[in-house]
Write a structure and sequence with these properties.
about 80 residues, rod-shaped, about 0% strand, DNA polymerase, domain 1, 5 helices
C-alpha cells in the first residue's frame, strides 16, 4: 500500500509541475511574438514608445512606422495581426 501511495504522489507531483510550467510559459507570451518580423529588439522599442500593448493597438500606422527599426509594411502587418 505504501508503494502505491508513493507512486501516486510522484505522478501527481510530475503532472502538477508540468502544468505549472505550461501556464508560466503562456503567461509570458505577447501577441507581438506572433508577428513575423518583430523580434525582441523591435518589441522593446515599441513598448518603450507606446508603453502598453493597448497603446500599440491604438497607435496609427504612421506612428508605428516612426519607431526606429520599423517599416511601414511591418507596421501595417502589426496592426492587422493584433
Amino acid at each position: 500500500l505504501y508503494l502505491v501511495q508513493r507512486i501516486r504522489d510522484e505522478a501527481h507531483r510530475f503532472a502538477i509541475t508540468y502544468h505549472r510550467n505550461l501556464r508560466s510559459k503562456s503567461s509570458l507570451k505577447s501577441p507581438l511574438d506572433n508577428v513575423t518580423g518583430i523580434g525582441p529588439k523591435r518589441k522593446r522599442m515599441l513598448m518603450r514608445r507606446f508603453g502598453t500593448l493597448k497603446g500599440i493597438k491604438e497607435a496609427a500606422v504612421d506612428d508605428l512606422a516612426s519607431v526606429p527599426g520599423m517599416t511601414r509594411s511591418l507596421a501595417i502587418r502589426l496592426k492587422q495581426t493584433i
